[in-house]
Amino acid sequence: MGFKQFLTNNWRLVNSNNLFINRCANSVLESHNIGYAQKSVVNKLQLPLKPKKPSPPFFQYLKERRQEVIEKHNLNFKDAIRFLSESWKDFDGDTKKKMNDIYNKELEQYKDNMKVFNQNLTVDQKNELFRVKYEQIEQRTKRKLKKELKELGKPRKPLTAYLKYVTEEIKNHGNEPVQTYMVTIANKWKEMDENKKSKYIESAAVDNENYKNALLKWENDMIKAGRLDLVRARALSKDDTDN
């Protein structure tokens, strides 16, 4: 069962758990990017357009009223979804039933269209679509992991000596385009006296040492918490040796 269908079947839960509000908002925001990627593949492989899956009634309700609620009540995107999920409870029952009936008919038609669509694809086209879908899932997984690591307080890798210099120099680009000035910075770094460079190199070395110590401490905390999936293999080996 897809998330949209799950949310439609369990819309009463939306108001009791902010996670559903966030996921609902994120799914709407991400759908544009996913659609764009699919269109690129369609153009590249000269595929027929993939049948569009109908939106469940609750999502139709969101789409039709979201902008109006945002403007009328001066709400942000997520608060508007929260507001509409509340109002959906009291939405006219007969209208809901009609919307559900139409949705179910459209869903059956969509399933038939998808069968025809898949039957007309070549093996190469199916493989390419699978590859794109896999990459999309991989990207979403990476974004979720990055967010989780940030929430768990994983230390961030420090800047290198060169990037420290760039950060310092980029403020002086004035009216010169940043891309052009980056070339100037790179040339300055190459020609810089080693004694001047040492300031950045030594500072980066100190930051890197502090980062390594902080990372080891964080990984030990993760091991104690049972989150071995977030820890490097070398940290696990060290922990086994210490024990």
UniProtKB/TrEMBL annotation:
Keywords linked to the UniProt accession: DNA-binding, Nucleus
Residue ranges of DNA binding: 51-118, 155-219
Residues in HMG box domain copies: 51-118, 155-219
Pfam family, one: HMG_box_2
The keyword Transmembrane belongs to this UniProt entry's keyword annotation: no
One GO BP: regulation of transcription by RNA polymerase II
InterPro entries referenced in this protein's UniProt entry, alphabetically: HMG_box_dom, HMG_box_dom_sf, HMGB
GO cellular component: nucleus
PANTHER family: HIGH MOBILITY GROUP PROTEIN DSP1, TRANSCRIPTION FACTOR A, MITOCHONDRIAL-LIKE PROTEIN
Protein name: Transcription factor A, mitochondrial
Organism: Aphis craccivora (Cowpea aphid)
